[in-house]
Amino acid sequence: MGIFYSKLLNQLPPVQPALHKEYSTDQMTIIQTKHVFPEVGCFDCYQFVLPLASFPPVQVEKSKHKLQKNNVFPVNPNQHHQVLEPQNNGLYIPIFIERECLQQTSHTVFGKTEVVFANENHKPSRQLLNLLETFIEESINKQSGYDFVLNILQIQIIVMLLRELKSNLPDEINRRQYSDVKGIRKAIDFMTEHCTENLTLEDMAQLTNYSPFHFIKIFKSETGNTPFQYLLDIKLSRAKDMLTHRKEMTITEICYLCGFNNLSHFTAVFKRKTGVSPSRYRQMV
Fold this sequence. Notes:
The chain is 48% helix and 13% strand. It has helices at residues 3-9, 99-110, 126-141, 146-164, 171-174, 181-193, 201-208, 212-223, 227-245, 251-257, 263-274, 278-284, and strands at 20-24, 28-33, 45-51, 58-60, 63-65, 73-75, 81-83, 92-98.
């Protein structure tokens, strides 16, 4: 249990351990939970809520908001907030980041310390979601050097939040501005929908009206990965979800349903990316 989470516990109402999993460094805590706290909250840290299912409306200060599934909703330090219709719905992920840590990172990267995020829904990039998933996996696996890796991931997550979420940072540094974003987002949606098919580079480039070479260049600028690295991450994310929630399915069935051509290749790629085999991953979740 990290120092930051120990302090955070003093501000959180009691919760059943079965509904609550936490993953922490000394400056950041990610929680997976189905428990919605009905009490008024007010934390001396930044909070980012990522609902993975439908979520009840919330009030932040005097404004009412509807949190959208698979979107990130920020709450600034010392903002009073409350769930208006509390109930245990599906899984959601609140992320708590120490105020000084986020502000110091913002100053180092963007030259501005006092950051105030807009209380609205923001669609996270796949890159940010991958960082969160990797943070949780490292916390679970606890392989050699995991503390060091978690601290690196923490900085990357904070920088991505600063880049992607609307705030008082100047527009030119607040969000990545690419004229090609719309086309790349369209390609990502297509890849997600058709990830089990034999997609070619030409298929994806055609959606953006770019040559394959230029598509790769623009795609990597937007996501940090090549199209095929990104497609592989989509397949692995789908596989991890099925290993977690589809216990009746065999690993071989999951392999083919996630677009892999053979079990040995799937196992090798999965272990290289996560550090454990699919069967071991299923045992841990």
